[in-house]
Amino acid sequence: MGDSRGGCCPPMDLFRSEPMQLVQLIIPIESARLAVSYLGDLGLLQFKDLNSEKSPFQRTYAGQIKKCGEMARTLRFFKEQMLKAGLSPSAKSLAETDIDVDDLEVKLRELEAELIEMNANGEKLLRSYNELVEYKIVLKKAGDFFPSAQQSATAQRREMGSSQMGEESIETPLLQEQETSADLSKQVKLGFITGLVPRGKSMAFERILFRATRGNVFLKQVPIEAPVTDPVSGEKMEKNVFMVFYSGERAKNKILKISDAFGANRYPFTEDHCKQALMISEVSGKISDLKSTIDAGSLHRDYLLRTIGDQFEQWNLKVKKEKSIHHTLNMLSLDVTKKCLVAEAWSPVFATKQLQEALQRASVDSNSQVGAILQVLHTRELPPTYFCTNKFTAAFQEIVDAYGVAKYQEANPGVYTIVTFPFLFAVMFGDWGHGICLLLATLILIVREKKLSSQKLGDITEMTFGGRYVIMMMSLFSIYTGFIYNECFSVALDLFGPSAYACRDLSCRDAYSIGLIKVRDTYPFGVDPAWHGTRTELPFLNSLKMKMSILLGVAQMNLGIMLSYCNATFFSNSVNIWFQFIPQMIFLNSLFGYLSVLIILKWYTGSQADLYHIMIYMFLSPTDELGDNQLFPGQKTAQLVLLLLALVSVPWMLLPKPFILKRQHENRRQGQSYAPVQATEDTLHSEANHDSHGHGHEEFEFSEVFVHQLIHTIEFVLGAVSNTASYLRLWALSLAHSQLSIVFYEKVLLLAWGYDNIVILIVGIIIFIFATVGVLLIMETLSAFLHALRLHWVEFQNKFYEGDGYKFYPFSFAMIEDEDD
């Protein structure tokens, strides 16, 4: 599971996982970090956590991991800043230099502090710039309408004062001043406030001002043509310039609070026209100076980010490696002298020499006085499962692993899946025209695999790209079965010579069998094209594909049972050979193996025997004469013998095995209480053998074992029938694919071709292409893929595959490089 790293794996097959060993490493503290680093480059050790009882904060290297986490946070901050600036980390591969982690930490901290300071200064300058831009707009707009607005406000004030001259009412405005009502001859000077308010809030702003002051204000608003940048939020928004005239301090305070609540920005304004022009000139000068300062700061900031971007990937990889190294070191335990670290790890047997060389190199490079020690431990613990795969076999292995990871050195169905999976898919998808389209699409992915593998793809695209070689095999087998079915977009072609049949008269195509006469030798490969288009095509192809599905299904189920024999032999489990493999082979082949032989005999002899009748009455009336259904001499006797063997094989599977396992358990408990520890390989095989029955070290429960065996026996007996019937999906989906192709070809393409109209023809061709791609090349491909997956997971693998192991996940820097941030 997992690709081979750097060609480290020796040539091997995939039938069984790599032999594994549990090794103990004793590493001096001064060379521990370098040793773990070299082992990470090697990528062939899966460390065990020897400090599982400790929390992450209690471990030896918690401080270093915290430091690496802080550096990773800083690098994420740099990446965010680069993305905001429209920059990206340099993609060019830099040769890794030896960077000291402490120096890198100091450098990152300094760069972060400098960047934060530059950001803060830039934000302050930008806010000041935006405020000055708004101030300039207010000065220009308010200067245009101030005289007229002031006259209107004064007139309104006089009008309100005269109307209230002799009135004493509870409706007197709240902001009415006592001095005003006492002496109307005094002229009240109106104050004013100017600023900008968001246009979306301007109506509510005006309404609240009117209600809060009982109408004792005068508001003038003028919209700004172009959106302006808000100094606070930094967002572009449409605003209005407003000017509020008021009388009295109470009114002023209310206006200030309301403007703050509505996010209005207030700016000072003078009545003197000359001072207004002078202020506009001063503001324009400040804007120009700030613009130059902001541009210079932005250039300096971009230069700093580019400098960071050139080394970002190198720094990021260094921090990731350091963090993973110290995380691994935290899984090691200190010895009693506090001078060495002790590690336990799983590794492939072939990697022993490479591990020793890496440890020796670490000792030399770290100038350690004491070398690291590697020794193999004997254990009864089940090792992880490790398959050395390449880019071709990895996808097929993933199909198997999705069902369950193989137990240690269990027979791996992935070897056979490389051939059987695409072949069963092709049986359901057989059309060499569609197969070629599928192959061309896959070749695009294969040709561009280097470019695509370095890009971040979508979920569907990444899944398709990962299975590109599976799809390639599926398309190649589809071309092969398409030649057998003689179908190219549902059209039969004389590719391998002329048809063996010819028409006797013009009406022969409407006849079932009369009218076609054989005039040549049999068509050399695949279905004779003369069958296509006749009334007998569907019955003939139905019979052919249905019987072929049964033959393929029985063959694959027999292969599964044979693999259970391979497992039993490898693990020296004679009980499974005699009381599982043999009765299962007898039962399956006494019924459905016999049916397969009858199918072949019927094809060979051309007999008209009814196979349904033979199989049904083999159970209902086994002693009756066969009559016309007899295919070979002695068939009746053979059927009686096969029926008897099938009946005997059921108790053969059920009864002896639990009693034998009980006796073996008693013998082990009595005679092997003080037996010495076995060698590693024998121990692992013995342990796997015992665990396969669920009672290796636990107390033996005869009732549980018997019930488990009963369930297993019933499952196999019923599954032999249901699994064989399940393979008929090969026939059903092949028929559906063929008929859909015919419908699209005849009812779309040929129908459009029949009209003497170029527009209808073009529309028909477009519909045919979209229907072929959408339905036949995408939906039908997915459907056939899922059905082939089910046949492998359920019908094939349940005959022998336990799939209760766990993957080998080595500590490898190559995996760290593939991880996202």
Automatic annotation (TrEMBL):
Main localization (coarse): membrane
Keyword Coiled coil: yes
Subcellular compartments: Membrane
Keyword Membrane applies: yes
GO BP, one annotated term: vacuolar acidification
GO cellular component, one term: vacuolar proton-transporting V-type ATPase, V0 domain
Listed GO MF terms: ATPase binding; proton-transporting ATPase activity, rotational mechanism
Keywords: Coiled coil, Hydrogen ion transport, Ion transport, Membrane, Transmembrane, Transmembrane helix, Transport
Coiled coil: 94-128
Pfam families: V_ATPase_I
TM spans (from-to): 423-447, 468-485, 548-566, 586-605, 637-655, 757-779
Membrane-related topology note: Multi-pass membrane protein
Source organism, top-level taxon: Eukaryota
PANTHER family per the UniProt record, alphabetical: V-TYPE PROTON ATPASE SUBUNIT A3 (PTHR11629:SF112), VACUOLAR PROTON ATPASES (PTHR11629)
Protein family according to the UniProt entry: Belongs to the V-ATPase 116 kDa subunit family.
Protein function: Essential component of the vacuolar proton pump (V-ATPase), a multimeric enzyme that catalyzes the translocation of protons across the membranes. Required for assembly and activity of the V-ATPase.
Protein name (database record): V-type proton ATPase subunit a
